[in-house]
Amino acid sequence: MAINFDTALGIEPKALAFREKRGEILAANLANADTPNFKARDVDFKAVLKQSMASGVSMERTHAGHIASPQQLFGANLMYRNPNQVSLDGNTVEAHVEQAKYAENAVQYQASLQFINNKFSGLMTALKGQ
Amino acid sequence: MAGLSIFDIAGSGMNAQSLRLNLVASNISNANSIASSAAEVYKSRQPVFAAELDKAMNTQNATSKVNVLGVVESQDAPVMEYAPHHPMADKDGYIFKSNVNTVEEMANMMSASRSYQNNIEVLNTAKQMMLQTLKMGQ
B130 FRET partner, CA 20 to 30 A, in A51, B44, B71, B93? Predict the structure, then answer.
């Protein structure tokens, strides 16, 4: 019985990659907290999960006149955040909201990492047979 | 490692905020500068931030760094004061004081320093995440 990392690790590596990318988006939101007209962005984890569980078929652009699909991340659309309070300079970043999301994302990243580590230590135990 | 771009993004934010802090320092220290004409007097300077548009428009890359487009001088009229005995007074006896609003600059300073701290926190968290990732499977 060969050990296959894909089946052994499951969806966790993908989740880790997603968390990393989301961290970048949230970091960009925080960095642009004072940039006029900057719109905060985020991606919905539920949509990403749904997309990566289903083997979907996407439409291809064969002509420059075709409408491009919206910006995507792991198959899910990148959304703009609805601010709780609007500001006059057109910026929709709310530092506290972004901070909370960033912290949440960091914890979830560490959780995914922990899952992977545990799977590795499980594999090591199986290999050693002790 | 793709995660390293968090460092770039937070770094660009810190760059922008530190420039803003520098300008605040310059404005506050020159708040009481005087001159003998409206053209010569120190005017309040403010940075102009923009998101890096090329990246913002790219379908592959949704993250955008902060770009400092430049520094603009405030167009507000300088404060004129009648002081005929002042050595820098013009022929009508007026001196011109800079249009820096100290209260506004203090608020600006707090905002800039908080934003800078925010970026540092982001960077620290990202660093921890990357270091833990390096230890994966050990």
Answer: A51
